[in-house]
Amino acid sequence: MLPFREAFEWLDANLPGTLYLRDAQYGFTVLLTLHVVSMCLFFGLIIMMDLRLVGVANLGTRPAEIQQRLFPWQMFGFGLVCISGGLLFWSDPLRYQGKLYFWIKMGLMGLSGLNAMAIHFITHGSEAAWDSKAARVAGTVSLVLWAGVLVTGRLVAYEWLTYE
Amino acid sequence: MLEPFFQWMESVGVYSASPLIGPIVNLIHLLCMVTFIGALLIVDLRLMGAGLTGRPVREIARDAQPWLVGGFLGLVLTGIPALMSTATLQYPNRIFWFKMYLLAAACIFTMTVRRGMTQTDEVQGALPKLVGLLSIVAWLGVAASARLIMLL
Fold first, then answer.
1. pTM of the model as a whole
2. ipTM reported for the complex surpasses 0.90
């Protein structure tokens, strides 16, 4: 029912270390906990930046400064989220292939990436553009999309909308 | 000693009206958590000499305060029904108690030592860095142990 079944079956059979990760006694536990903690780092700082962009928090700091100063830490968190999330996927590709929420989450992440590029182009080279309506809209969209990523990511754990 | 109380909490059946209440409360708990941690980090990074170094510590902390307090209130309001729904599973769980003690310690630390440290404009030396680091480690520890309650 969901796409790429055969490709994921191939991954399941051929990714090196998949069985080791899946069967390791604390593999899933450690990876999931690391995923949650690194999500706090990443999404927490994204929220602080977006709320400033929207114009509701951290108003004493210029948005350009928030973006610049928090960006390395957001990327640090993002790296950890991707590594832990990538390894979770690596440990059991077929499980995630059958989850509709997994696919929605991936789609929302793609849209978040596009929206981040939009923010870059909206604000690029002009301090005043940070306070434009377009920047506020993009900040709101970012908050909604990343919240959607968190929500759908959590829903993967339930058995809803799971297909063989 | 508290076991009857935990049995009573579960007997209330806070989630009994619908199977959707549990997941919804959990999702709100997580959204409050990331908001809370974001408001925490922006100040702790500054204490450690990173992040928004161009502004006084006091002002960053003041700006973040509503989101820190709001996130925390949301966490408590959603955490209580989450606990009540599975209270008899939580009671004998060592990780649950570890989380609660760490949470209590982190709250006291945040409202005393960290609060004092964030009421100045500029911080210097190793002590503020240590306070910022301890705060991050303690609160991420609360988040990690919460995740581990039902896994270990």
1. 0.96
2. yes
